[in-house]
Amino acid sequence: MKLPFIDWIWRVRGTVPVDPSDSASDAFGKLDDLLKEKNTTYSMSGDTLSFAKGPQHPQDKMSIFDRGSWTVANGVLRYDMTSRALLACFLAPLFFLTVGHIGVAVDTWRNPPELAKAKEEAAKKRSKVKPEDVPMNTIDKILGAPEPEKPKADKGGKKGEEIGKRNRKPSMTTAYVFMSIFFALWVLGRILEHWLIHTRIRKRLSGEYQLSEQSFGADIRSASTGSLEVGHAGA
Known about the structure:
Elements: E1 11-17, H1 24-30, H2 32-35, E2 40-45, E3 48-53, E4 67-73, E5 76-82, H3 84-110, H4 113-128, H5 138-142, H6 158-167, H7 173-206, H8 208-234
Antiparallel strand pairs: 1-5, 2-3, 3-4, 4-5
C-alpha cells in the first residue's frame, strides 16, 4: 500500500553519486559488506537490488531497516528503505495518549464530579473529628472498659501517604512523559539513521571506506612491527 504523504515517517530515501565508469553490478559489489549479514536476503533485477531482513543483529550496520531497494541509473544510486522501528516509535506516543485518556475517562465515569465533591467534603469532616472528642459509651464505662488510647503521632507521615495514594486520581502526566520519550527517539532515529546510511553508502561507492580500512591495517602492522623490533633489541 502506497501512502506518499505520510510514508516518510518510516521510509528513508535519497541519492548518492556513482562513478560513471561503474555499472550497477560494480556499484552493488562495493556495498556487498552491508548485505553479508545474518538473516539478510537480496536479489538483483537489472539495475535494481532488493533486500529484506529477518531478526536483525546489533552488529548489522543496517539493523534498523527491514527491507528496501537500491537502483543505479543516470550516474546515481537511489535508495528507498523502510523501518518498522521508526514506525513503532512514531505510533507509541499515540498509544500512550489513548491509554491516558481512557484512564481519565474511566475514573470520571466511576467518580462523577458531584460524587467526588461529596467524598472530599466527607473526608474533610472526618479529618476534623478527633478520636478523643468522641465520648465513651456509658455501658462501657459501667463495665469498666478501658478508655481508648490516643493515636500516636504519625512521625513518618505513612498514614498521610496511604490516604494520598488512595485519593490519587489518574492523570495525563505519565502519558505525556512517555510520549515525549518516544517522539524524541523517533526524531533522533529518523535524522541520525538517515545520515548514517547515506554516509556509509557514499563512502563505499567513492572508495573512502576501503582507503580507511587500508590505512587502519597499515597502522596496525607498523605498530606491531615496532613492538617486535623493540622486543628484539631488548633481547
